[in-house]
Amino acid sequence: MSLLVRRCKFWYPTLVNKLKLHKLHAWSLTNLIWTSRSFCNAHAKPSILDDRAKKFLDYLMNEYRNKSWQSNNFIDFVDLNASSNLFNERVQLVENIQNLDDLGQQDAEIKKLAEKEKELYEEQLNELDESLLHMILANMCKDFYSNIIVEITAGVGGQEAMLFVKDLYDMYIGYAKYLDLDYDVIDIEMTDNKGIRHVSIMMSGDQVNKFQHEGGVHRVQRVPATERLGRVHTSIASVAILPVPSEIQIAINEKDLKIETKRSSGAGGQHVNTTDSAVRITHLPSGLSVSCQIHRTQGKNKKIAMDKLRSILYEQQLNKQTSFVSKLREKQMGLGFRNEKIRTYNYNQDRVTDHRLNQNGTFYNLIQFMQGGAALEELEKRLCDHIRTEMLLEVIKKLETQSN
Questions:
Q1: What is the DSSP annotation of 276-338?
Q2: What sections of the sequence does the record tag as coiled-coil (predicted)?
Q3: DSSP class per residue in 125-163
Q4: Which residue from 316, 246, 256, 312 is spatially nearest to 282, judged by alpha carbons?
Q5: Interhelix angle for 108-139 vs 374-403, to 10°?
Q6: Which of 9, 52, 41 is nearest to 396 (CA)?
Q7: Tens-digit pLDDT profile for the chain (404 aa)?
Q8: φ/ψ (deg, to 5) at 248
């Protein structure tokens, strides 16, 4: 309660009224672009909040106070529980400001004192709202998995595309080492010219979320080593980032599986063709079949094959869902750009450009970038900030249409 209100309460007992929040009113999505650029910029913390952002926070605060947010699918991404302390403070600050407004209507001298105290509360409210917006955005990207499968597949471009897959493979292995992740190559198909046609890598660790937005079509523009006339060729490779769900999230009945073992083939020294360590698992209801022979033990190959099967089934389950919330969830997990051209690696111009970012999406010194270190980490951070902003704008747009 405001200090001034407490002082005046003895002669104005009916002054203090509870604040009644208004429902969220529609506002132009175009006007929100300024807001999103302000409070979601990866390089500058905002100092000013406009009325549109305030109205959105008012709406969230109303949902929080009424305990109705738990049944509101659209703000499931906001996670008000994580911000409960800040929302409690906001409720108190808004009530204090409203009380001072009511108090200032009674007496000129009291109004002057109330205005000074109100300025302090409004300053505190602005600082609190900035913290709330940043926390809301941070929580929108927190749901991810501790295990993922990175799949890289050559596309248009022939041998050059397969050499590009090898470059991406080296970059992601370097990035995994930089992030101190555990990784395991679970499937790889090499070519005679030291390229890679397809590779799958299992990764695990606390920072696998920093691979979250690598999924999509990657394009390379460069002069191949075999090109005599110096012409620039364009080749592509597709990258898929598959979250590996737990056994609880995707339950598979053993009766639905056909498990076969065989002797490993390919490189591997004396161990190859001596034990039945290779495993192939077929999921009978869907017809999906996965195999693994990378390890010497049948048990480990079976576990990896099961993880891969679970991951594919999970992705198929997501693809079948068409609701607004499910599509937002796909974007949250980095699955929304799988079939889109997301990035170009231009060796002649020594740059890499991510097309999802309108600004700050170009990095120079391509050779250093391809080592998979701090530059790739910085790009992932910018992408995460940008995609969280887009998700929030989509939620706001949906709420806008509902309020009309």
A1: --EEEEEETTTTEEEEE-SSSSHHHHHHHHHHHHHHHHHHHHHHH--SHHHHHHHHHTT-TTT
A2: 103-131
A3: HHHHHHHHHHHHHHHTT----SEEEEEEEE-TTTHHHHH
A4: 256
A5: 120
A6: 52
A7: 555 544 444 333 333 333 233 333 333 333 333 333 333 343 333 333 466 677 778 888 888 887 766 666 556 666 667 778 888 899 899 888 888 887 767 777 777 888 888 889 889 998 898 888 877 777 665 555 778 889 999 998 889 999 999 999 999 999 999 999 999 998 889 998 889 999 999 999 989 989 988 988 999 999 987 777 888 999 999 998 888 876 656 778 888 899 988 876 654 444 444 556 888 899 998 888 888 887 778 888 888 888 888 888 877 776 665 454 555 555 555 455 556 889 999 999 999 999 999 888 999 999 999 999 999 999 999 998 888 877 777 777 776 676 65
A8: -75, -40
Residue 45 CB neighbours (<10 A)? 10
* Beta pairing partners, 261: 279
Domains of the chain in sequence order: 3-139 (no CATH), 170-381 (3.30.70.1660)
- How is the chain split among helix, strand and coil, in percent rounded to 5? 50, 20, 35
Extract the tokens encoding 308.
């891969």
- Residue 111, φ and ψ in degrees, nearest 5: -60, -40
Spell out the long-range contacts of 131-134 with Cβ–Cβ below 8 A and sequence spacing 24 or more: 131/86, 132/57, 132/83, 132/86, 132/87, 132/90, 133/39, 133/46, 133/49, 133/53, 133/57, 134/39, 134/45
Query: What is d(CA 279, CA 61) in angstroms, rounded to the nearest whole number?
Result: 53
Minimal CA–CA distance to 213: which of 325, 322, 27, 342?
Answer: 342
Contact residues for 102 (Cβ-Cβ < 8 A; gap 6+) = 15, 16, 17
